[in-house]
Write a structure and sequence with these properties.
11 helices, D-Maltodextrin-Binding Protein, domain 2, Double Stranded RNA Binding Domain, alpha/beta, single chain, about 325 residues, five-stranded mixed sheet
Length: about 325
């Protein structure tokens, strides 16, 4: 194996189907790059996987899905962890960092229903399931006549609840459904005007110990420059808003040649108020972080702080 003395890497992974798919994907990428490298996936159950009857916002947000993985890396039991970037907290524990952001797949949300083809087709009073305050606020703004009901569990569990008749439709990440082979369940991909994506949605990130320089070098070929620029801008916006993962904040960046464009959104949970703004920079002259901070400042001037404070008090 070139440029490294590593013979084995251990990936910390949640045991949900999607988390294992993500870890297997990175495992296969590493094995293609380094044929002599042994890659082991170490499965574990997190607190977020265990508590399914309480909204995430009430029990600490999506950071609950990564704490056990991070502890295993800090203790030297595993070497890296693969995350959906939309689930990665804005700040890392001491000794850990984000080593790579991989090429982004679809960042959008998907409408899934057994009886209706589009969000627009749902009759008044239909029950829509989502675990995301971001999705709830935007769906409520588009269709205030619908009933939004909480939906927890992994992708298979959520689909089973839809099939059991608990919901008329559910909203899930387009990329997650496709990665698990559920293409046929997707009735409609919601565009950014209807449901602006979560920060980092559709991209995978790899976390490792800050002092593991050989592993960081080994991961460099998996870094996607375009996705890294976009997600860095989105995460800088979220960090400035002190948003965490489980709040009605959305951010989506697009790179077009040297122009990086970012649209940000903060909403009231019930969709009664939606704040949006956008800006762009030349990435050869300004950093993605500066773009994210500028968009966040604009949202704060529009009243985002008031809306976010109301969420934290709810």
């Amino acid at each position: 194996m070139s440029n490294t003395t590593f013979s084995k890497i251990r990936i910390a992974s949640r045991e949900s189907a999607l988390a294992l798919w993500q870890s297997e994907y990175i495992k296969s990428q590493l094995e293609q790059l380094y044929p002599s490298l042994e890659v082991e996936i170490v499965g574990m159950t997190t607190k977020g996987d265990q508590i399914l009857d309480v909204p995430l916002a009430k029990i600490g947000g999506k950071g609950l899905f990564v704490k056990e993985l991070e502890q295993s890396m800090l203790e030297g039991k595993t070497d890296i962890a693969v995350h959906s970037m939309k689930d990665v907290p804005m700040h890392f524990p001491g000794g850990l960092e984000l080593a790579a952001i991989c090429k982004r797949e679809s960042p959008f949300d998907a409408f899934v229903s057994n009886n209706f083809e589009r969000l627009e087709d749902l009759p008044e009073g239909s029950v829509v399931g989502t675990s995301s305050l971001r999705r709830q606020s935007q769906i409520s703004a588009a269709r205030p006549d619908l009933v939004i009901k909480g939906l927890r569990g992994n992708v298979n569990t959520r689909l089973a609840k839809l099939d059991a008749g608990e919901y008329d439709a559910i909203i899930l990440a387009d990329s997650g459904l496709k990665r698990l082979g559920f293409h046929e369940r997707i009735k409609q991909v919601l565009d950014a005007k209807t449901s602006l994506p979560a920060v980092g949605q559709g991209a995978l990130g790899i976390e490792c110990r800050s002092d593991d320089h050989e592993i960081k070098t080994l991961l460099e070929p998996l870094v996607d420059k375009e996705t890294s620029l976009c997600v860095s801008a989105e995460r800088a916006m979220n960090t400035r808003l002190e948003g965490g993962c489980q709040v009605p904040i959305a951010g989506y960046a697009i790179l077009d040649n040297d122009r990086l464009h970012l649209k940000g959104l903060v909403a009231a949970i019930d969709g009664s108020e939606i704040l949006t703004t956008e800006a762009d920079i030349n990435v050869s002259k300004k950093s993605p972080s500066s773009l994210g901070q500028d968009v966040a400042e604009s949202l704060l001037k529009m009243g985002a702080g008031r809306l976010l404070a109301a969420v934290h008090q709810a």
